[in-house]
Design goal:
Structural class: alpha+beta
Strand order of the largest sheet: 2-1-3
Radius of gyration: 36 Å
Order of helices and strands: HEEEHEEH
Number of helices: 3
Shape: elongated
């Protein structure tokens, strides 16, 4: 059992992941690469197989200065037009008025609980909800 843990520790402690590849030039001039030496004249090449982490991309991978934004760097959203702002404000005003009217006419208000049950608001909570609805009308409609 100690041998297993020792072997595991040695594998984990190995700070480099490298592969040995053998390069050999045949008499006809062709070059072959293999994981096993074909003859004594084979040259050993060590290839580092670790992927560098946190290094900047190479110059070939870097975008040009005039390149379009990538999904990683989204472009800033355009400013909304005055017509868009006015339309959004009108929609929010209509929703706030409808909510305020419902809250003023309702005798009881409730909030939905995660299990689907209803919890009815106390008188203080009902007054606060009605005041909040009236404040929303002031904010969006004036």
């Amino acid at each position: 059992m100690r041998v297993f843990w020792l072997a595991t520790a040695l594998l984990v402690a190995n700070d480099g992941f490298a592969a040995e590849v053998y390069r050999q030039v045949n008499p006809d001039g062709t070059v072959t690469y293999s994981d096993r030496p074909a003859s004594d004249s084979a040259e050993t090449i060590t290839i580092d197989t670790r992927t560098p982490v946190g290094l900047p991309p190479s110059a070939a991978e870097q975008p040009a200065d005039d390149a379009q934004p990538t999904p990683d760097t989204p472009a800033e959203p355009p400013e909304p037009s005055p017509e868009d702002v006015a339309a959004e404000r009108a929609a929010n005003c209509a929703a706030a008025r409808e909510r305020n009217d419902r809250y003023q006419m309702s005798r009881r208000l409730y909030r939905s609980l995660p299990d689907g049950e209803r919890e009815y608001l106390s008188d203080e909570e009902l007054d606060a909800a009605r005041a909040g609805a009236a404040a929303d009308v002031e904010q969006w409609c004036n």
